[in-house]
């Protein structure tokens, strides 16, 4: 079953861009759009969503207030805040208000997809620096599924391995050394209790973490 996504942003161009990106990702479907907080809350009352991608700056309403309403009335819905503001400005407030993750709008499309997958499965998508600042376990529900024990970067590497990419290809995509990617791969195998790429690929496919 596809992850059903509601995009909440007051800029039509941004909504269209996000929709185009996400509709090209297998296992995801943008089934709703809203330009205001009121529209978002109305959509949530009438449709079923797994993830809300929420701009924190909305006209006539605070994104934090909308986030709080969603978390209070629909706690089963994960909220990923996608903002133009740097993490240090608003991320801590958003996470404390109940957001499942925080991402800036300059993030790469594959990171956006990885973040949505992670919060949809009950995980938290924040940087290690923010988790440390807030004294948070980045994965409070890590015991539920093996991939929830991974850091954000490890989860990203897992998804790329799951899509069949080699260490060299992943290094090129993420602009990191092959040695660094190999280290991430080793940590992923250790945390997930697996022995090979084949096991990782099978896990990623079975749990719809890849296209």
List its salient traits.
211 residues; Rossmann fold; Arc Repressor Mutant, subunit A; 10 helices; 49% helix
* Count of the domains: 2
Can you give the helix content as a percent range?
Answer: 40-55%
In this structure, how is the largest beta sheet organized? 5 strands, parallel
Give the CATH level 1 class of the largest domain. Answer: Alpha Beta
Descriptive overview:
The chain is globular and about 50 Å long. It has 2 domains: 3-133, Rossmann fold (3-Layer(aba) Sandwich), CATH 3.40.50; 146-206, Arc Repressor Mutant, subunit A (Orthogonal Bundle). It has helices spanning 12-22, 37-46, 63-73, 87-96, 109-120, 128-133, 152-162, 167-174, 178-192, 197-206; strands at 3-8, 28-34, 51-54, 57-58, 61-62, 78-83, 101-104. The mean pLDDT is 85. α7 crosses α9 (178-192) and α8 (167-174) packs across α9. With 211 residues, the chain is an alpha/beta fold. It has 10 helices and 7 strands.
Describe, in short, the structure shown.
The chain is an alpha/beta fold. The chain has helices at 12-22, 37-46, 63-73, 87-96, 109-120, 128-133, 152-162, 167-174, 178-192, 197-206, and strands at residues 3-8, 28-34, 51-54, 57-58, 61-62, 78-83, 101-104.
